[in-house]
Amino acid sequence: MKNLIAFLFLFMTAMSFAQPPTPKEGFRWVLWDQYSDEFNGTELDRSKWRDSFKGWKGRAPAKFDPSTISLRNGNMQIRNKKLPRRDGPYTIGGGAVQSLEKTAYFGYYECKFKASRISMSTTFWMSNPKKNIIGPTKLSGDCAKDKWSQELDICESIGGRFNGGSKFRTQMNFNTHYRYVNCNGDPEKFYSAGNNAVEGNGQQANADLVGSESWEDFHTYGCYWKNDKEVDFYVDDNFAGSVNIRRDVVDSPFTEPMGINMVTETYNWAKPYPNDAQLANNAINTSYYDWIRSYRLIPIFEPEFQNGSNRPTKPAIFKEDIKWVGNPSVNVATKKITIVYEYKANLDRDLVIHLNDANGREVFRKKINALEGFGKNKYVATIGQSLPAGNYSVVADIRPIGGSDTQIIAKTDGNVVTPPGPDGDIVIGNPTNTNATLDGWKSNMVINETDTYTNTTGASQTLKIEKFVFHAGRKGDPVTPFVVKVNGDNNFTVLAAGTARTSNAYNTGENSFAFATGTTKEITLANGETIASGFLDANANGAGGNIGSVIPFDSNAPADQIWYSGGPDSSNSGNISEGTAPTGGLNTITTLTRNYRFKILLSLVEDTSTADCSVAPSGLVVSNVTNTTVKLSFDNAANDTRTFELRAFPKGGFNGDINTGGLGFAAAPAGSTEITMSNLQANTSYDLVFRALCSGSSPGSTELVTITGTTSGGTVNPETTVLSPVQDAYLQGATNYNSNIVRIENGKRVGYLMFDISGIKGAITDAKLKFTVAGDAGSGNLNVNLGTSNNWNENNLSNANKPALGTLLGSLNKSYNIGATETVTLQANAISGNTISLVLNTTGGNDFALASKENNAATVPQLVITYQPEKLSNDDAVFNTSAILYPNPVKDVMKLTGVSKQARISILDISGKIVNFKTKSVDTSERMIDVSSLTSGIYFVTILENQNKNVLRFSKK
Length: 957
What we know:
- The protein is mostly beta strands.
- Strands 1, 4, 5, 8, 14, 15, 16, 18, 19, 20, 21 and 24 form a twelve-stranded antiparallel β-sheet that branches. Strands 2, 3, 6, 7, 9, 10, 11, 12, 13 and 17 form a ten-stranded mixed β-sheet that branches.
- The longest helix is centred in the N-terminal third of the chain and has 15 residues, at 2-16.
- The chain is elongated.
- Keywords: Secreted, Signal.
- It is found in: Secreted.
């Protein structure tokens, strides 16, 4: 029993720190607050979730009933029940909790839940609504009417018994669905792949739950949505299986963001349905969700976008830690420390690297960032001082930013490393200054299996083979050195064959030669690969072993293990050829133990690339635009090791977060000079965001370069934009109030909002006003009228200049609860012009307040407008290359290129308020804008030129 208790304790402890899989080198996982919740409150967080499923009532006989959902004891609970009265085909109440946003994109998503013990599902999945397919498909050609959507079922569990067996209680059941409606409008067809044989394709997976069935205890279910074609699944932190998404319709099936759903429902294939007694039994009818966590994968040194006052307070989900991946290395010659490490941090931390000598004295320290999240990285630190010979230890710790040595949170073990000796960085073989016994056979091949080198850096490593050093016991046959990769016991591949040295080239005693004459030999080792040294008493082809062996040996302990082949006559040694296994000769012995007097010296090849992650390539220009593609050209050196990437966002939709909300992605490797972004929509405006990713020892990525413009030709698709007020205030009698709320009360308080809609070029087809109730709840009929004038601002609003009531745009009659986001549908055809004022007043009911643009704790009012853009001709619709802004995010100085001297530049904050800045230089090609005085956050650069307006968004660090 004690062992069982210990196991359960360890199991629960491990589960409490569930986490994403280890990130790829140079990146880290960061918690995405919008799609994460610990469910520790008393009611659902209405800024993230709704308690219904938009557009779907549920699958009969169970419908989604908000009354089943509650937060209790640190869990979100869905208590399934019998409906008090039948509702058409519905007799059972299930529940649906759905994310408000549908911007969840490539990343890791996990949820810890316990299923009910009835024949209803407990689920965790992602989906998005139908949209038209742009471009041709494999099934229907280029049809304008076919539609599609995505569904990613991370886990569907049924804890109760039904006629389908036990798999839904004992395993994680996952699926991917490409949901397709063809041009004829035929019934939707699912193209599915997953391990749920009921709805998927029955793919095999190792998806067993750990320790208990799904209804007995909590289990963690996760997925890594890697790209538009592949998803990996995890259960209880164990890899469960990988799914290649079906490509029957298109080659890139999962390209769109999705929303998240947590749902309990009935299935028509899971019968019998739960009976009345089961639905009334609270011990078995409830699904429990402990938490949901979502993560974005971002570069290791790239700050999370939401910094400063906008950064959410996140739970401490990681057990903070740091550890080595492989062993650190110290290079005396280059004065560098190379480390590969993993860490977990709940907040931004300092990572301090310490180099200690053999007496434990610190001789060097380096502090770098360990930004919030779970990261893995290779880092090279320059020591900057000479090191004497001897052993050293490398230790790293994480601590609070600016923390002292007494505030260490976690640290690595003190791994001991030995700097390379006078022979070079790496030596494989034995000392060569001792004569000994010679082999009696004429033709021999030797591989030293004991004195090897293994790459433990955690990354690939390039080595230059410098020298072949050996002791010649006599002059006679040729001697040929070589290096092999050790694939396993007595299993080798020849990586490099050196130059054969004839008896005329060497002398008895010690000899040192370049490993190869002419072109220097280099080899590249992946992490974990091992190499060994060898030689032949012959040429590489085995010929020439006519006199007798050259390199002596002894058998003194400890003796090396040797792979040996040879014989008494010429050509008995076997032969070698690069890229293949050594070919043995007349006799092969794998158990020989001897110390042969030779060695091969290798050196580390330093990274000589010109990659500098703080510098973007020069010569950025949009070189070509078509209906659906944009080509970006740039200068690029051939030895640049970076990857260059281009992402597309809806115009105005780029908020500084490169990892979410993008509509497209393209990349080019080093040596390229252009990137083409395909599959864009015709006659549509985009923000293009360009950056370079570094490789090798230079971590991080370039700061972002943002370009805006419009593709050409084709059908004009509707666009939607979200605007924040540029002015907002309310009047109480004759007194103006400009605070963090706008109060509304019948006959006493009237609210006023002003919006700049000058950027909308086209007919408005839909308009909605969204606001968040803050500070004071209330009820009643709210009217939203168009104001008859705009001659006011939030500081001078008075009864003398206030807008009079114009057209009634929309109304809403209900109770207004604190924290709730409300939407008023407006009369779209009545909205026009460059600026509009909205007047908000109630007729009856109780007063309430909504968050204003000055409110930092709640969402500001939003005017959501959908419009039909004006169609541009192919000749006129070119991408606007005159609006290039970089770096983005910016710390102190921002550059704006290609803007004429006559252009008017202004900067607005997120609320639409104009802020002060300094222009450091003005010419026809570049303006340097000093934004060092701005606080961290989101801003907009507005450019007015030749009666045209262009807006670029940027982030201030």
